[in-house]
Amino acid sequence: MSIADRVSYRRALLQRGFHIGAKIGQGTFSSVRLAKHINRRGKVTLLACKIIKLDQCNDELREKFLPRELEIITSLQHPHLLHASRVVQLDQRVFIFMQYASGGDLLQYIKQHGPLKESAAKRWFQQLLIAICFLHSKGIAHRDLKCENILINGRHELLVGDFGFAKRCCDTPGQPMATDEDQRHHSWSETFCGSLAYAAPEVIMSQPYDPMVADIWSLGVVLFVMLNSATPFGEDNLARLVRLQTDRMYVYNDHLAKPLTTEARMVIDLMLEPYPQQRITLSQLRKMYWLLTK
Length: 294
What we know:
Helix content: 25-40%
Structural class: alpha+beta
Shape: globular
Largest sheet: 5 strands, antiparallel
Number of helices: 10
Number of strands: 9
């Protein structure tokens, strides 16, 4: 971007009360910067701003995935979902102004502090579960759940973010769906989405899949990482990875200060069920003993 373009963008944003600050994240076609909004009464709100470079995006991202992301993040309001307060498009740049999560992302937190104690993991996982239940109830699958896309706010609570691969699984936006058990075959996806380490076997094998059921597998990987400080399947070869997933070849960390309870392992095992039709549902998950106890 030329200096003249950068000055022009900043001037246009300042007219709307937005000030762009230091870079705090970087993606392939976007960057994230600190920002603040100053309203007419002088109230200052600290934000994060995702800046998408349209001229560097491919056609599918620009015409398919980005419109979905913008529609979803501006329409949803939930305590544990990252919300966008304003979207501004200036020529070849889209500026998405969102809540600022001062605690960084979950992966950074685990790298810094190590595996979580069960009580802490349970508290955060309950928040994730509530968020994904809400998302699915609105007919939306996330399709890219991973620790990097889960943020920590100033109250030490989790926010699910990055809806770049999110997809509505019903024809009418905002239309509520039936229970997740009833939606096992509601809407199928064929696009490989997300990160290999968090992707369900049916996604990796390029089979038509139920994206909401695949989200549950990814939740299982997130909980595993919370409690073990490592992903369950460390393999880049697709054939070997699927074989490890199908054979349930993952090992819990034996060097934890306190061994995981049988109840915690059971919750993970039921989410990391390799056969999607046998995988635990969200409503069943919410009734698990581990999640109902303090």
